[in-house]
Design a protein that fits this description.
Length: about 170
């Protein structure tokens, strides 16, 4: 196991998301424009709206995915390197799966959640974490959907780092 591991977003998954968005947009557009047989106008507009949102999200992901998405070091977990969102291994109690409509997210369980939130310097981030805490019981979550490794492998790697470096 390396002392530092950088996990990036998968280009193939991001491109696939963009193509899926373009396909939904095309279906919604042709259905609403030409009124082809299969869908009513309302459903065509739903396809069009969702397609545009997914397409925009995919394009933004392609351009925003420069650099690693997660960094694991012997000091801790940097779960959002763009804003340097960092938590020490000694502050982490464990990891659990959160499943909502078959979309899995990895929750980072903290030993003292309130102390972690109070330690944050940005007031907007503190408010956001407090709101997320009410819903998910932890302010930190990792969405493995676009990462280049699988959810199970990520959970295994996070657990290995926690066991190795969290006992300090």
């Amino acid at each position: 196991m390396e002392d530092k591991l950088e996990i990036s977003n998968s280009k193939n998954k991001t491109i696939g998301l963009t193509i899926f968005g373009a396909l939904l947009t095309f279906v919604g557009y042709t259905q609403s424009l030409f009124g082809l047989v299969y869908f009513s106008k309302g459903i065509s507009y739903i396809f069009l709206g969702i397609g545009i949102l997914v397409l925009i999200g995919g394009v933004v992901s392609i351009f925003a995915s420069k650099g690693p998405a997660i960094i694991l070091t012997k000091e801790g977990l940097n779960y959002n390197p763009k804003i340097n969102a960092f938590v020490k291994w000694t502050e982490i109690a464990g990891f659990t799966d959160y499943n909502l409509n078959n979309h899995h997210t990895i929750l980072v369980r903290l030993k003292d959640v309130n102390a972690f939130i109070e330690k944050q310097e940005d007031e907007k981030l503190k408010k956001k974490m407090t709101l997320v805490l009410k819903v998910r019981e932890t302010p930190i979550s990792i969405d493995p959907f676009l990462l280049e490794i699988s959810r199970d492998k990520l959970k295994e790697t996070l657990h290995e780092y926690l066991v190795k470096y969290g006992n300090n």
